[in-house]
Amino acid sequence: MKNLIPRRRRNEVQRRGGEGYDPFEGFQRRMNELFEDFFGEMPAFRDTERFGAVVPRFEVAETDSAISVDAELPGMKEDDLELTLDGDVLTIAGEKQQESEDKKKNYYVSERSYGRFQRSIPLPDGVDTENIRANFKNGVLHVEVPKTEEYKSGRRTIDITTG
To answer: What residue spans carry the region label Disordered (predicted)?
Structure first.
């Protein structure tokens, strides 16, 4: 009979809160352990994307001249991605289909990973949405949204009226 006390694997760091915190990570880890206990450790259950979904890492930053968005999308191709602008919301969506095979002595393993993601990023007022540029290279999507001159200066004069 399996032990009912939750166990922690070696070298496992337990995070609570903070940047990158995912409240479902512990739940997923525990479910994976239960499956491993019941079925034995299977390669498909290790280090997979969350619940079969693709969860790319995004970084949104501001420079003097633009708002930049970088998305890590390993294993994806440009044709798998869709970049849209609806009003002031930039949306990056994609679908990943990955297959790998590993042939050993007396067994055959085939792993497939499918998943769709969509991330919407609201853009601030004062950016030039007509001149957005996107580049995809080595599994990283880089999107640059230029700032308007008004946004860059950050300062403007406001008329004061009397009465």
So the answer is: 1-22
Amino acid at 18: G
The 8-class DSSP code of residue 54 comes to -
The tens-digit pLDDT sequence of the chain (163 residues) is 455 555 555 444 454 555 555 677 777 778 777 766 666 554 443 444 444 456 789 999 999 899 999 999 988 899 999 999 999 999 999 988 766 666 766 666 666 667 888 999 999 888 999 999 999 999 999 999 999 987 777 766 788 888 7
- CATH number, domain with residue 73: 2.60.40.790
Q: How far is CA 73 from CA 21, 64, 85, 97, 122, in A?
A: 20, 26, 20, 12, 20
Q: Are 144 and 118 in contact (CB under 8 A)?
A: no
Question: What is the model's pTM?
Answer: 0.57
Could you tell me the two tokens for 54? 């693709």
Q: Is residue 158 included in any domain, yes or no? A: no
Domain that holds residue 117: 56-153
Same domain (yes/no): 31, 64 = no
* Number of alpha carbons in the 13 Å side-chain half-sphere of residue 78: 6
Q: Is residue 97 part of a domain?
A: yes
